[in-house]
Design goal:
Order of helices and strands of chain A: HHHHHHHHHH
Helix content of chain B: 25-40%
Shape of chain B: globular
Oligomer: heterodimer
Number of strands of chain B: 10
Number of helices of chain A: 10
Order of helices and strands of chain B: EEEHEEEHHHEHEEEHH
Strand order of the largest sheet of chain B: 6-7-8-3-9-10
Largest sheet of chain B: 6 strands, mixed
Bound molecules: adenosine-5'-triphosphate, magnesium ion
Number of domains of chain A: 1
Distance between the termini of chain A: 25 Å
Number of strands of chain A: 0
Strand content of chain B: 25-35%
Structural class of chain A: mainly alpha
Chain lengths: 243, 253
């Protein structure tokens, strides 16, 4: 791996996104729209203040996972991945290059989304707002890292597409959104503990209830570790040669 | 030294590619046994020559080329490229590969594509300009690849492979879909590159293009039918052109 090759790849990915307004719309416009619909639907209730912060972490994860999966899928289909594998560029340069590019987009997304929720929709966060932004960025990065790991492990394009529901849905069910974790059957609670999204949402729930960085540092560290783990997995499973 | 058919064996150390007993089994699908795509290939590509890899669709041309650039897993045998095992890290700067369908980023412009790959192989802006000129695309440098014709896009893909001035160029059907003038221009370019010392392995299923090659590898259903010059091939089979020689070899088996 070399910083020169990693940065070249990150810059190239960002250039591609810039040429594609629909991806930017999906990244920023769609989550804003859904937040606005929720604010409108529950006007006059504390729902936005309670669940808004959760959505600020959930949207980045799902959307970044999708965008990353599609981007790497296209890289595979267009044959450019095969070409990259014949060039003097490390597998880590490709994976980290993507992570850097989408990480930058995750920052943009988290800032716009939080700004929109607080300034336009009037969402009030009891805890530290900047930590909400931090967790939202980490959740976006987590989505990218999981997307990279999933598509690196996939042998074919079809498998890469199948990974999307496989990785996202179980996390949604067990993350504690539908039912508080301590009310789940023990097995589900254990599974929930093994899922990265759980920690992101846990932190956001606490922040909505008035917590600061100090209170959620455990959950934030867990998300960060999942990101590093997924990126390492993605690098290790990307194949230079195929059957 | 092996000698397929009537071609002269090349001297050791002068081969850019040496393939020995190569077998490749590709998976046929879920829980079904694989199909043997290459069934024991022995071949050499001498340095500084244009070698044509000819064969009908499905004969294994792409698979053979993928083994040379190291992205195809091998079942048995060896492939040596520039005296190193195929796919070795040190070869990635010395070998250029152009896949059958253009492998460039459709949502970037021509020059953005070239600049990205130039950074990966550590060459500069003058090599970007040279590569563009070599495939006659300078005028289209600013165009998005998705707005180009198929032939134009495949020349962008070729230009990327020319960036690092590799010692060996592996080109999978680079002239498909091009008009006769462009086709001739590209073969002229291949000739110039070979005269400058570059080795080229070029696949095609247009048998006419055999005339522009120094040597030929004829492939059919994973078997190598011939590894020789065109003249030797014609003399051996008593045929008047490659197509007839190919048929002669197929029916004479
Ligand atoms: N990914 C794959 N998995 C399994 N089998 C494959 C795969 N790709 C190709 N094959 C099979 O391998 C054989 C040789 O394919 P290959 O692509 O090497 O042929 P080719 O000579 O390049 O053909 P064409 O002229 O059409 O490009 C074919 O029978 C094909 O069906
Ligand atoms: Mg082919």
């Amino acid at each position: 791996m070399s910083p020169r090759l990693t940065l070249a790849t990150a810059e190239r990915v960002l250039r591609q996104v810039r040429h594609d307004p629909r991806t930017i719309g999906l990244l920023v416009g769609l989550p804003c729209l859904v937040l606005w619909l929720i604010a409108w639907m529950f006007e006059g209730t504390p729902v936005l203040d309670q669940f808004g912060p959760l959505l600020l972490g959930l949207f980045p994860l799902v959307v970044m996972f999708l965008v990353t999966s599609v981007a790497t899928l296209r890289e595979r289909q267009s044959g450019t991945l095969e070409r990259l594998m014949t060039l003097p560029v490390g597998r880590g340069d490709i994976v980290i290059g993507y992570a850097l590019a989408f990480g930058a987009l995750a920052v943009l997304q988290a800032l716009v989304l939080t700004g929109f929720a607080v300034l336009v929709l009037g969402m009030e966060v009891a805890g530290a707002l900047w930590v909400v932004v931090l967790v939202a960025v980490l959740d976006g990065l987590l989505g990218t890292a999981l997307g990279l790991a999933a598509s690196a492990a996939a042998r074919t394009e079809f498998q890469a597409v199948q990974m999307m529901p496989l990785i996202i849905f179980p996390q949604l069910v067990t993350a504690g959104l539908m039912m508080p974790r301590d009310q789940m059957p023990t097995v589900l609670e254990v599974i929930s503990r093994a899922m990265p999204l759980t920690y992101g949402l846990e932190a956001l729930q606490d922040l909505a209830a008035g917590a600061g960085l100090h209170d959620v540092r455990g959950a934030v560290t867990a998300v960060a570790l999942f990101i590093v783990g997924a990126l390492m997995l993605g690098t290790a499973t990307l194949r230079r040669s195929t059957r | 030294m092996r000698n397929n058919g009537s071609g002269q064996p090349s001297e050791p150390g002068r081969a850019a590619v040496r393939v020995d007993g190569l077998r490749v089994v590709r998976p046929a699908g879920h829980r079904r046994p694989g199909i043997e795509v290459l069934r024991g290939i022995d071949a050499t590509v001498p340095r500084g020559q244009v070698v044509g890899l000819l064969g009908p669709s499905g004969s294994g041309k792409t698979t053979l080329m993928r083994t040379v650039v190291g992205v195809q897993q091998i079942t048995a045998g060896t492939v040596e490229v520039l005296d190193r095992p195929a796919g070795e890290e040190s070869l990635r700067r010395r070998v250029g590969y152009v896949t059958q369908s253009p492998s460039v980023y459709a949502d970037l412009s021509v020059v953005e594509n070239l600049r990205y790959f130039a950074r990966l192989v550590a060459v500069g802006e003058d090599d970007v300009a040279r590569s563009l000129a070599e495939v006659d695309l300078t005028a289209l440098a600013g165009r998005r690849v998705s707005t180009l014709s198929g032939g134009e896009a495949s020349r962008v893909s070729l230009a990327v492979a020319l960036l690092a001035s590799p010692e060996l160029l592996v080109l999978d059907e680079p002239t498909v879909g091009l008009d006769p003038v462009l086709r001739r221009d590209l073969w002229d370019l291949f000739g110039r590159l070979a005269a400058g010392g570059t080795t080229l392995l070029v696949s095609s299923h247009v048998m006419d293009e055999a005339q522009r090659c120094d040597r030929l590898l004829l492939l059919r259903e994973g078997h190598l039918l011939a590894d020789s010059t065109l003249a030797d091939l014609l003399a051996r089979t008593g045929a008047s052109h490659v197509e007839a020689a190919f048929l002669h070899l197929v029916e004479g088996r």
